[in-house]
Amino acid sequence: MKLILTFLIVFFISLIMFSCKREGCTNSAATNFDKKANSDNGSCLYPSDAYVGSYTMTDTADNYSGGPTAFTYQLVILRNGNNQIQLSNLFNWSFTPLANVDDAVSLLMIPTGALSVGSGKLNGNKLRLTYTLSGWTIHGTGRKKLDRFIVYSL
User: Is the pLDDT confidence value at 151 over 60?
Assistant: First the structure.
């Protein structure tokens, strides 16, 4: 009887210990991937998440109207998958180019239409962009509006 009771106790303790699910981020592309997690809890963070938000940008077009011209506008960046972002309202134009994000500090714009090349760097809440749009070389800087309670996603 004692042996059966000991067996049952060990069995139930083992069952409880080994059946517990460890929750966490199970996507290996995420920056907070947890290889010990066996149940995804929706907490995954991706390099593109660092860019998401609204920026007040000032861009300077080097060869626009015979000399440097500065433009100020609102740029909204949305996440478009794990490692891609959308740059809505870039240079106050009505198109939305995409950019690939390799890490949380650099991006590479995907050429489309009038946009032939572009790249950028993120340092804290400061964004720097350089791109060529309709033959104009444009350098932009901006600061992210810190609205931590709004989640931008597609």
Answer: no
